[in-house]
Amino acid sequence: MKFCVCIKQVPDVQASVQTGRMVLNAYDASAVEEALVVNEGTDDVVDLVLIGPSSATETIRKALAMGASNATHIVVESLGGLDSHAIAHILADHFASHEYDAILTGKQSQDSDSGLAGSMLAELLGIPFATNAVGLKAEGEDLVVTRQGDSGQEIVALKTPCLVTCSNDMNNPRIPSLKGIMGAKRKQIPNKEAASVSALTDVSKSFSPPGREAGVKWEGEAEELVSQLVSKLQNEAGVL
Amino acid sequence: MNSILVYLSVHDARIKRSSLEALSRAREVGKASGMAVEAAILHSAAAEMASVAHAHGASKVFCMANPIFDSHLNAPLIAGLSKVIKMSSPRAVVMASTEGVKDVLGALAIRTDAAVLPDVASFYVTSDEVTCERPVMAAKLLASTTSTHPLVFISVRSGSYEVSEGETVGTVEEVAFDFDEATLGATLREIVQTTGDTVDLSEANVVVAAGRGVRDESGKALVDELASITGAAIGASRAVVETGLFPATAQIGQTGKVVSPELYFAVGISGAIQHVAGMNNSRVIVAINKDADAPIFDVATYGLVGDCFKILPVLNAELRKIIS
Fold it and tell me: Does B258 have pLDDT greater than 70?
């Protein structure tokens, strides 16, 4: 199946102190991995597209090193003013001249957690889609998606061309091999300008939420700990 | 233009609590801003649930009854909601941020030319603008976000608001829905229900969540016992979902569900930021962990430093006495 995976470079939110380190969005890494697995043993391509600053080239090379075929870099130096709506329109413009059997995206990006761009893109392209996928399988002309719903997993067969947003629960993305890294270094990554779009929402400020205060912490024998806890739950918290 | 429409999600032929939270908040906002509040129910038994929507503040309830909505496919829901939104012509559409809603939100916004404020912790609506605060960067930051677009969608994290009743006298409008299945582009093959989920995790009053410290089946049995004694839903950290000890529907955190129960037991959970993002609005947090420096203790109301295999048997016995 001919895949294109939309990837994003995001700050490393796992770092307890903001280091400014930028990484490949974890959900997108799972999407790249899954496309590679589905296409294993075939000659079908897994292409990439990224919207982001020039410095995001390193993230594209990382995904190429995993085994992706070719990448397009839509250069936008600051993503600050672009919301999901704007991103989806830029991507839709890209896909107007590039045809694929299936477009994959991460189910959300780790920094903004909006989870909208994928399904917005599908609607703009007029193709069927599924979100929050934990499994993918090619079956003739169909892509069979296992998605995590509210109370169980739903298995949906999508007619191609289609779009799927991927959870990081679907696989563990491979660590690129040395050969992959060397190969990725030599690949040309064509740059492209973004289509002119507008955002419909605006972030006026970001701030640290009022933190939870740490409560009490006890050490000791199990009996002692439990008796202290039960007394507090009954008399102080009033939850028993 | 001068109303708020609330889409009510249904599970097991009942309106979800998180949807009633969203409706309760919409009623308060509508009262303050002088806007009518309407609701939409898309389900084969929609009409039977209309009175619940009235009781929580909806003056008009759009009922679209069609069995296709019970199929979990996104295309019919997007088509149905688009039709109701055109009829209601609201300033804002409010919904609970469930997986079902997340599945349709983006496409629905494009189809109806709406702006979206997704997964918010708080919101306010006036005729000029819609404002919200939403967690970003794994809930390390809150972002104040605004839209002045004429139509704005808001999806609300569960537990952000309390459910409350109003005194609304309401009407019901039945809306016909014909869906051309030829345009579907997708077929539902199967729904694999997770067995043993007796309490809905995202709506539970008590949650017992297990992490790496729970290790194996014998640890899981202790967790199950604590949950059964306290009537809790069972949650899990990503680590024990990956090992297969707990189902993916139990996962709490940035990737999984957001919960905000009265009482949360974190058993053998270290408290990685991605997990904490899904549970730090719980009222009382009890943490049990061997490692006294585990970050979970930074958010715990009561922290017990010790081995959960030693503590849980004692705790279960003690709670069984009190609760029975």
Answer: yes
